[in-house]
Amino acid sequence: MVARQSSSRKRRKSHPRVVVIGGGTGLSTLLRGVKTYTPDITAVVTVADDGGSSGRLRKEMGILPPGDIRNCIVALAEEESLMSSLFQYRFQQGEGLKGHSIGNLLIAALTDISGDFLTAIRQASKILKIKGRVYPSTTEKVVLLAELDNNTIVEGQSRIMRSEHPIKRVFLRPREVSPVPEAVQALMEADQIIIGPGSLFTSIIPNLLIPDIAEAIGASRAQKIYVCNVMTQPGETNGYRAEDHLSKLLEHCPGLTLDIVMVNNSPIPRRLREAYALEGAVAVDFDSSRLEEMGVEVILKDVVNFSNFVRHDPLKLARVLKKLTEPERSAPCPSLGK
């Protein structure tokens, strides 16, 4: 049970205490931006991954999947140097080695040496001299399951992402899961909690299905922000608008309250729209009025980077998020335009 924060909470430090929640590419992208405006960062990361190198290590060694943890450690590295590149290096050949990254293998080895996954994360974090802390949302071995709109149940994150039917809901097995205490404490002490961006059903919601995590977010006096994805994700959020993302988030986490939803309003170049359309993805549309009716402030900003992909831009995100920590932003205000 999470105790509600005392009203005598200490005054805010010179650097805001920021907690980010999620997994996958979206989380590591966000962290690269957040570390530019505060060193006091806690990443709370999903451990439901069962594909690729992480899935193999999970199955063969019985450890928690290290891939998303590794990406967060690299993103928070003081300098993304040769050692960071080494962590991310993935073997392209070799029986038993092909597909594994050195960082995943290192975390697996440190877990084997220390006998503890959290200790392994701390040791890997020291190697890269990271700003902040990285915690899994739980150290229990959870399996993610989804109920589809045809009432079938799909087991495993990697299979859920390939579903051909819309997802009705996701849930964990076991259902009662204990969080990492340090993650709960960070949430309770945070000035700013950021959820997303990332895969809605397989990276973000699994963290919030852990009761004490969701309860800690609700009890925290932090500013709570949801960063909506820029593009829909085939197999997960086909046809979803920003309102649908928020609705599913709240549906899975009754009692969760958010202050702000951040949505990209920069047009996607035609060449990229056409390329993504071939994969079944489109830009996430939005209706500010409908979002506001759901009880949140809506911030519309250009927060993307265009290359061969459409991704959130770490520095653009950071500029907006930093402004939201300033004292005059303590009270809600009307929707902000570009």
Automatic annotation (TrEMBL):
The keyword Cytoplasm applies. Its main location: cytoplasm. Pfam families: CofD (PF01933). GO terms for biological process: regulation of cell shape. GO terms for molecular function: LPPG:FO 2-phospho-L-lactate transferase activity. GO terms for cellular component: cytoplasm. Gene3D superfamilies: CofD-like domains. Keywords: Cytoplasm. Required for morphogenesis under gluconeogenic growth conditions. Belongs to the gluconeogenesis factor family. This is Putative gluconeogenesis factor. It comes from Candidatus Hakubella thermalkaliphila.
